[in-house]
Amino acid sequence: MASPLIQMALDSLDFGQTLSLAEKTAPYVDIFEIGTPCIKHNGVDIVKALRANFPDKLILVDLKTMDAGEYEAAPFYAAGADICTVLGVSGSATMAGVIKAAKEYKAEAQIDLINVPNKLECAKEAARLGARIIGVHTGLDAQAAGQTPFADLNAIAGLGLDVRISVAGGINANTVQQVVESGADIIVVGAAIYGAPCPADAARTIRRLADGKTTHRDMILDKISSVLGATNDDYYQQLTDMLDSANRIFVSGAGRSGLVGRFFAMRLVHSGYDTSMVGEVVTPSIRKGDLLVVISGSGETEQLIAFTKKAQTEGAKILLICSKSSSTIGDMANLTFQMGRSDQYGKVLGMPMGTVFELSTLSFLEGAISHIIHEKGIPEEEMRYRHANLE
């Protein structure tokens, strides 16, 4: 089975941003869709610009034509569009007009089934008229209400029509394989790419998933990269300043976060900081002027809340490293470092039971150590001298 085409929805009103996003994602997509807001705002000029800059890509203009089909679509085909969309609710005459214009320019028409009451009958009528693409489309408002395109996609695919099926509606890395398995020929992706910290990385992930070429290793690395890409780079200097101003450093975490904490504490010792891991029998008492670093994905772990309250009572400063911007521990902390965005911590293929936070934090803290040793000029030989030798 051939891999489906990836269609990138370009919805920005800004002309320059549209071209910039297209440039970043071009290696991984097959079709550039000039979204309805974008085409309304920028007109034929954006079609001409994309055609000139990306001669090897298909250009779809999402006109959503409702009337005067041939008259409205013809100028966009003339400007270089390969595909124009017409609403299925417009009726047979309007659909036929856009199809006629497409044939005149050796291009294609796509029938958009958004808000069509009887999608199966409309799809059959569109195919009879000569449409080459049927668009199964769950709009933004419907997505907000919890609707997805999968049931409609399965139903249209089951008709066995001689058309390609395009599907749009909140598709992301977690759902793209389901779309492929349901029989889509064209996968439309928008916010999952343009809303990502690195659109190129997100597009590459979608491409690999659609092609069935991704591995669990790829998914893990891509996820960590996306979380770190959404994490504030200023944290490195802020962390360095807090470490340097503290008399002593205490590191705390539970479960896997505790393992990450141990790694970080060891690296701090190598870097010359007076560091203790909370919970060890030789850990001293925390006092004013010290720093407690708490690593907690939720910021709600009861044991760590108790540690934080004690540190606060003693007058120590508190830094929380968390997956959320607001939490019980965060309310007591002097500063909270949020790893990525909260919406990046849903279920992730290849990363069971919430390892996104721990692995991302581990990578962030190793980057922080690298920042510290290069800023302070700490030679590796000095770090090796501090490394444990009773082992």
Describe this entry's structure for a reader.
The protein is α/β, with parallel strands linked by helices and 391 residues long. It folds into 2 domains: 5-214, TIM Barrel (Alpha-Beta Barrel), CATH 3.20.20; 235-386, Glucose-6-phosphate isomerase like protein, domain 1 (Rossmann fold), CATH 3.40.50. It contains 18 helices and 13 strands. The chain has an 8-stranded parallel barrel, surrounded by 8 helices. Strands 10-9-11-12-13 form a 5-stranded parallel β-sheet, with helices on both faces. Helix 15 (302-314) links the parallel strand 11 (291-295) and strand 12. The longest helix has 22 residues, at 355-376.
Question: Topology of this structure?
Answer:
Elements: E1 5-10, H1 15-25, E2 31-34, H2 36-42, H3 44-53, E3 58-65, H4 69-78, E4 83-87, H5 92-104, E5 108-112, H6 119-129, E6 133-137, H7 140-144, H8 150-157, E7 164-168, H9 176-181, E8 186-189, H10 191-194, H11 199-211, H12 216-229, H13 235-245, E9 249-253, H14 255-270, E10 275-277, E11 291-295, H15 302-314, E12 317-322, H16 328-332, E13 335-338, H17 355-376, H18 380-386
Parallel strand pairs: 1-2, 1-8, 2-3, 3-4, 4-5, 5-6, 6-7, 7-8, 9-10, 9-11, 11-12, 12-13
* CATH level-four homologous superfamily name of the largest domain: Aldolase class I
Structural class estimated from helices and strands = alpha/beta
Largest sheet: 8 strands, parallel, barrel
| Unreliable stretches covering 5 or more consecutive residues | none
* Average of pLDDT: 93
CATH architecture title of the largest domain: Alpha-Beta Barrel
The percent of residues in helical segments reads 40-55%
The general outline is elongated
Domains (count): 2
Give the total of beta strands.
Answer: 13
Question: CATH topology of the largest domain, which one?
Answer: TIM Barrel
